[in-house]
Design a protein that fits this description.
Helix content of chain A: 25-40%
Oligomer: homodimer
Largest sheet of chain A: 7 strands, parallel
Number of strands of chain A: 12
């Protein structure tokens, strides 16, 4: 049995704690996973880990053993006091395990050259929506997601939980500022049709031809897509609303359009 | 200005507090709304109120005035100490207003005789999903929802928030036990086709003919629909999954199928 760290001043503990800050996490290129289920999913999706923190009880358990056997030798393992781990964790019941993983760095240029369906998120705020949109994108076979600055951090723990592990299986470019996005759509204007979803759209989503390469934009829960992006779009599509309600939830709207898009392309299911 | 209630032992306060218990709420046929936005939506949707609790500040504000002018004379108005109201409220920032509303009692028989699209929820657990499903149902023009026992309370505050006021505009029958549901589907077997959604379905959702009267069943987030319901279904439909993920979120799946259903019936948008 390894030595059990009990002091919150231990450098490994201090480092773990520091990564609960979004900025620090982004600067370090790391993110945090809590709990057996998602850490196991991450391992199965070949996520690259920096270190794993176990409680003594979890370390000795079957699940603990399963994790230790599956991870790379280079991953640093810490056994820490249960009280210390629970105090650091965001989840009420972190199940005795927290991991630090290394962000995957996707190459934007090769992604843009090769993708055919890209989802663009303009300031999605709710972590549950963000996670669900990532999950739906993987299900619908989207090639990747460009999340513009002002959206919730994709490595927020609530986003990771709602994504149900989908985040490990899709290219996500996050924190992309507006100027960079503008450059991308200018540079690739001949490859991608830019399609915005907005209640003021010109046509219904099922009237759209999705067979070309597409960037589909989904906007903020309350304010929709920025007007500059709407103005620059090749097409603005809308979803009909029959009953007495203003709009659909952003994740539901994404699902309805992405599934229409995929069907329209007659993917072989 | 009315008298300001400052004691937590005041009977009106004790009654309000008691309704934060789900069982008590159900027995009384009441539910609670917190915050200006949803209470205002409820008023616009002709919800029947029992009483409203204001903080002194909110009572005197423009929004407070707006509410007071719009509600019926029979609604009992209380002005209570800010500290007391915040201590009772579920929301971190209840914005100085809490209301007790009377549940609408829909007539099940006349509903079943006249509806053409019914959504059946088999043990939906997550309040966000439940609220989003209700919102999506209103948007897609569903006639009503039968929520089976074991699903989250439809008057849970998180459900109400996620529904964005949709709950005031659709018939919802909640807490329906399995035997009652069984009787309904037996009695109306000639009117409604019972369609379950399950990954083991026989056909894809877009291959289904939705033009007849339909009861569409959506199941629990982790375990899906009970096997007895699946076995009794006229049709079991599935949604294709392209990428590496097990399933879609229940609210997203509902949205994809309900919008296909509505389109299939060629509603005039």
């Amino acid at each position: 049995m390894r030595e059990i760290i009990t002091s919150g001043f231990n450098p490994s503990i201090k480092y773990l704690r520091s990564l609960y800050n979004t900025k620090k996490r982004r600067n370090e290129g790391k993110y945090i996973l809590e709990g057996y289920r998602i850490i196991n999913e991450a391992i199965e999706s070949q996520v690259d880990f920096d270190s794993i923190y176990f409680t003594p009880g979890f370390y000795k358990s079957d699940k603990g053993n399963h994790i230790i056997n599956k991870i790379d030798d280079t991953v640093y393992i810490n056994v820490i006091d249960k009280r210390v781990l629970e105090e650091i964790a965001d989840t009420v019941n972190p199940q005795g395990i927290i991991a630090i993983a290394n962000e995957i760095k996707y190459d934007m240029v090769s992604f843009l050259e090769n993708a055919s369906t890209i989802l663009v998120l303009d300031r999605i705020q709710d972590p549950g929506n963000m996670g669900t949109i990532i999950r739906t994108s993987v299900a619908a076979g989207v090639d990747g997601i460009i999340s513009l600055k002002g959206s919730v951090d994709i490595y927020n723990l609530k986003v990771l939980r709602a994504s149900m592990g989908a985040i490990f299986n899709i290219a996500v470019f996050s924190g992309i500022d507006f100027d960079s996005f503008w450059n991308i759509i200018e540079k690739y204007r001949n490859k991608y049709r830019l399609i915005s979803t907005d209640p003021g759209g010109d046509k219904f989503y099922f009237e759209e031809d999705f067979t070309k390469d597409i960037m589909l934009v989904i906007g903020n829960e309350a304010n929709g897509i920025r007007k500059e992006i709407i103005a620059r779009s090749d097409e603005i599509i809308k979803i009909p609303i029959i009953g007495k309600i203003d709009s659909l939830n952003a994740a539901v709207a994404s699902g309805i359009i992405l599934y229409e898009l995929m069907r329209n392309r007659s993917y072989k299911y």
